[in-house]
């Protein structure tokens, strides 16, 4: 009996309870947002209309949705970021998107670290394994690359870093520094659609090269030794 109580106490410690609470809150918010047929916040058009109608509160709604897009993988983050660029302009939208994406990545990291593989598999349908044999700094560098270029799913990397017990400072700095350039490219692409066809075409070509072709090459030819460190099942 005493041994069982110790196990329950270890399971429901402060960190695990907090992570479980955040997860449940995220699920409730996701369920609420998904049922708002009039707002339809999970599409670029619906989000654009909602944030325009909400005024200053629209910024907070957008940040919350982007954070939720990391925790709940069915939500498409990139199209929403592009739409934000068209609504607010590249720089403000980039700041809001980085705040939301970074917050969501920290939530996913702590869920993975606290609740383990079964919770992550329930949320994503997959399990990601990180090898720390070559050191945490190398793993941090690979996370930087995957944030800079969408080589792997943003949410899977966040959960996987938590599952692997990667150092929080290394994970957080790699994530923040890597996601800023790619996020700004998306918001500039969104803003370009309001400026004219020439700017939109130029940025669309750059988008395809940097965020589609380069990630494909990294996955296809194992640049940076990605497959030696990361495995997804």
Short summary:
With 233 residues, the protein is mostly helical. Helix content is 78%, strand content 3%.
How does this structure look, described?
- The protein has 233 residues and is an all-alpha fold.
- It has one domain (2-232).
- 78% of the residues lie in helices and 3% in strands.
- Strands 1-2 form a two-stranded antiparallel sheet.
- Helix 4 (56-71) runs antiparallel to helix 5 (77-88), helix 4 packs parallel to helix 6 and helix 5 packs antiparallel against helix 6 (90-115).
- The chain is globular.
- It starts with a helix and ends with a strand.
What's the helix and strand layout?
Layout: H1 2-11, H2 14-34, H3 44-54, H4 56-71, H5 77-88, H6 90-115, H7 117-124, E1 128-130, H8 136-148, H9 154-163, H10 168-192, H11 197-221, H12 226-229, E2 230-232
Antiparallel strand pairs: 1-2
User: Over all CA atoms, what is the radius of gyration?
Assistant: 19 Å
Shape: globular
The structural class is mainly alpha
Tell me the strand percentage band: under 5%
Q: Uncertain spans, ≥5 residues at pLDDT below 50?
A: none
Distance between the termini: 37 Å
- Taken in chain order, the helices and strands follow as HHHHHHHEHHHHHE
For the report, how would you describe the main beta sheet?
Answer: 2 strands, antiparallel
Strand elements, count: 2
Oligomer: single chain
| Average residue-wise pLDDT | 77
Number of helices: 12
Roughly what percent helix?
over 70%
Q: How many structural domains can be distinguished in the coordinates? A: 1
Order of the strands making up the biggest sheet: 1-2
